[in-house]
Design goal:
Blueprint (H helix, E strand, L loop, with lengths): L3 H4 L7 H4 L14 H5 L4 H12 L14 H12 L30 H15 L5 H15 L68 H13 L5 H11 L4 E2 L43 E2 L10 H8 L2 E5 L5 E5 L24 H8 L1 H12 L1 H17 L30 E2 L2 H13 L4 H12 L29 H21 L4 E2 L2 H19 L22 H4 L6 E2 L4 E2 L7 H11 L4 H13 L22 H6 L4 E5 L6 E6 L5 E6 H8 L1 H11 L4 H16 L8
Parallel strand pairs: 5-6
Antiparallel strand pairs: 1-2, 3-4, 7-8, 9-10, 10-11
Length: 713
């Protein structure tokens, strides 16, 4: 069956917003993963996983009698898809069991790892999500082989459909790389997390399958930086992970059958059927590279680091035909145990990506530090691993379970505890009077509240109004936030805050974060009243103000909008049309198609555009919450004409006089041109549509203002 998107491939794809409009999972709406997780006996779960580690199954035998290395790889490849650019990827959702990740070439045979976990998942059912189980298994695997982990937090939810909002890259073939994946300077596109389609990070053989050490080191640093990992964290992760297990390349990958999504129905979700030898154990084919990194592949020790630094390595073709590295003088030939029979010796090997760490001066310095200080290696890997498998969980209050460490990391965007009483109804009314009496306009208050709250991303739960980080670097200097105007608005809010707090004879205080949201909510109420609608915008206080020291400036830069269709802001050098970027932002805000539509229409008439632009402000009564945007957009008595070759700005001309009535951008006109968006716009633009529009705007606005209020859940 040919679908609509196939007939018109250039049609604006709104399907990612449909994921926010419905729950496709099997549980009812009252089901709460976090609550269920907290009823678990985590010690019992870990004991079951510990027993599983050495319970080798004939259908898929454990290397060296221990599944630990396999589960570490599974957990790493689940969490390691995260990237700071949009917060997508990562372990949340358990997406590794769904396409495309379940069929990535780099995830060959991880289908067996998850199938080995099924008895544990079956036993605990809804109390233990796959997302939690996959990374917990990796943690227990490390502990079972002598490593002391930093901790574990649960509460991840499971997804039941692929996350189509993730951009994995421009290629249409696995294990391919196109020039579009990199910029003019050869750096990986900011939006992506891996240098090769279908691989977790980089090609282990080296760039383009060649043993190029300089290129490999550059790729490693580039792709790990997209997870906000520095050199020390990068080396710790690679060295720590490669302390365990081996890679499999007994023969060419030509022996492997289709991946799970393409495999025949009788394989029941498993893939990569191996026709070489017995197809398992010593005959396993995974990466195509063959051999262990050391002689103790199921023990935590320094052997990987020592082997890498102590010997000279040279490239060779392994039995699977892939490039790998062997000791130059054969010192470690036959030093590794066989996967089934320890007396069957294997050569210890290294990947190009391993030797690249030794080759690069900065990476090598870290390796030498770890060799000289094993405790530092232990600590660095523990914290880097914890960051890897938890980075997409968001703020510390979402971390659940008895093994959550007391220490809070900067990458968790910590917030201070409130050491005061939160304002109540009487105080809120007093604050509203102070705001109303100030010189802040409705548009200024709306823009500031939106700028603060709309940084939220449901992908990794970062951003949002809580913390008032809009007053801190880097947000206060973002172009989209109009720094000069923002400084003035924040200055007025700070005066109101000081006036209120200093007047109290009790412990009640108001945070700037709450004031910013309250000011925006009051502005919406006033704009609705000006249009003849009496509405109340819900406001729940309790936000706190973060400090600059609690804010990781470098990683927060990733939250800066290149486009904000809601404020009609378009930056430079866009990879996609502005309307596509607007939909992407809406998806990160968990908006539906109607919610995105009503917010854009409302923001326009509230005069909340970037830099005071009149584009899309289709009303003679700005700062009044009317449905004028939709009424005038749908008026067919005039013609829209592009005013530039790039068709980014348009003018609406009267058909008779030729006079320009309005100007607009693509983020305005798409609500009239796209059939789905127009269908919604017609509801709001109808003669009886304004009341519905106002209430829907209030609901959508309130939703955005509360997206980061995990303390209310």
């Amino acid at each position: 069956m040919t679908r609509t998107q196939e007939w018109w491939p250039n049609q604006l794809d709104l399907s990612v917003l449909d994921q926010n409009a419905r729950d496709v999972g099997p549980y009812d709406e009252d089901f709460d993963y976090a609550e269920e997780f907290q009823t678990l006996d985590l010690d019992e779960v870990k004991a079951d996983l510990e027993a599983l580690m050495t319970d080798s199954q004939d259908w898929w035998p454990a290397d060296y009698g221990h599944y630990g290395p396999l589960f570490i790889r599974m957990a790493w490849h689940s969490a390691g898809t995260y990237r700071t650019h949009d917060g997508r990827g990562g372990a949340a959702g358990g997406h590794q069991r769904l396409p495309p990740l379940n069929s990535w070439p780099d995830n060959v045979n991880l289908d067996k790892a998850r199938r080995l976990l099924w008895p544990v998942k079956q036993k605990y059912g809804r109390k233990l999500s796959w997302a939690d189980l996959i990374v917990l298994a990796g943690n227990v695997a490390l502990e079972s082989m002598g490593f002391e982990t930093f901790g574990f937090a649960g509460g991840r939810e499971d997804a039941f459909e692929p996350d189509d909002a993730v951009d994995w890259g421009p290629e249409d073939e696995w294990e391919s790389t196109s020039a579009e994946r990199f910029d003019e300077e050869g750096r990986l596109d900011d939006a992506l997390g891996n240098t090769v389609m279908g691989l977790i990070y980089v090609n282990p053989e080296g760039p383009n399958g060649e043993p190029d050490l300089d290129g490999s080191a550059a790729n490693i640093r580039d792709t790990f930086s997209h997870m906000a990992m520095n050199d020390k964290e990068t080396v710790a992760l690679i060295a720590g992970g490669h302390t365990f297990g081996k890679v499999h390349g007994a023969d060419s990958g030509d022996n492997l059958g289709p991946d799970p999504e393409a495999a025949p129905i009788e394989l029941q979700g498993l893939g990569w059927e191996n026709e070489y030898g017995e197809g398992k154990g010593p005959d396993t084919i995974t990466s195509g590279i063959e051999g262990p990194w050391n002689a103790t592949p199921t023990s935590w020790d320094l052997s990987y680091v020592n082997n890498l630094l102590s010997y000279e390595w040279e490239p060779e073709r392994g039995p699977g035909g892939a490039w790998q590295w062997t000791t130059k003088n054969g010192e470690l030939d036959g030093a590794g145990p066989g996967v089934q029979d320890p007396s069957d010796k294997e050569d210890v090997m290294m990947l190009t990506t391993d030797v690249a760490l030794k080759h690069d001066p900065d990476f090598r310095a870290v390796l030498e530090e770890f060799r000289d200080d094993p405790d530092e290696f232990q600590d660095a890997f523990a914290k880097a691993w914890y960051k890897l498998i938890h980075r997409d969980m968001g703020p510390p209050e979402r971390f659940l379970g008895p093994e959550v460490p007391e220490e809070t990391m900067l990458w968790q965007d910590p917030l201070p505890d409130a050491d005061y009483d939160v304002v109540g109804e009487a105080e809120i009314a007093e604050l509203e009077d102070l705001i109303a009496e100030s010189d802040l306009s409705i548009a200024e208050r709306v823009k500031t509240a939106w700028a603060s709250a709309s940084t939220f991303r449901h992908s990794d739960k970062r951003g949002g109004a809580n913390g008032a980080r809009i007053r801190l670097e880097p947000q206060r200097s973002w172009e989209v936030n109009q720094p000069d105007e923002l400084e003035s608005v924040l200055g007025t809010y700070e005066e109101i805050q000081a006036t209120f707090n200093e007047s109290r004879d009790d412990d009640t205080r108001v945070s700037l974060a709450d004031l910013i949201v309250l000011g925006g909510s009051l502005a919406v109420e006033q704009a609705a009243a000006a249009a003849g609608h009496d509405v109340e915008v819900p406001f729940e206080p309790g936000r706190v103000d973060a400090t600059q020291e609690q804010t990781d400036e470098e990683s927060f830069e990733a939250l800066e909008p290149k486009v904000d269709g809601f404020r009609n802001y378009v930056g430079a050098d866009l990879p996609h049309d502005p309307e596509e970027e607007m939909v992407d932002t809406a998806e990160l805000l968990r908006l539906t198609v109607p919610e995105m539509t009503v917010l854009v229409g409302g923001m326009r008439v509230l005069d909340a555009n970037y830099d005071g632009s009149d584009r899309g402000v289709f009303t003679d009564e700005p700062e009044t919450l009317t449905n004028d945007f939709f009424v005038n957009l749908l008026d067919f008595d005039r013609d829209w004409e592009p005013v530039s070759e790039d068709e980014e700005v348009f003018e609406l001309r009267d058909r008779e006089t030729g006079e320009v009535d309005w100007t607009a951008t693509r983020c305005d006109l798409v609500f009239g041109s796209n059939s789905r968006l127009r269908a919604v716009a017609e509801v709001y633009g109808a003669a009886d549509g304004e009341e519905t529009f106002v209430q829907d705007f209030v609901d959508a606005w309130s939703k955005v203002m509360k997206l980061d209020r995990f303390d209310l859940e």
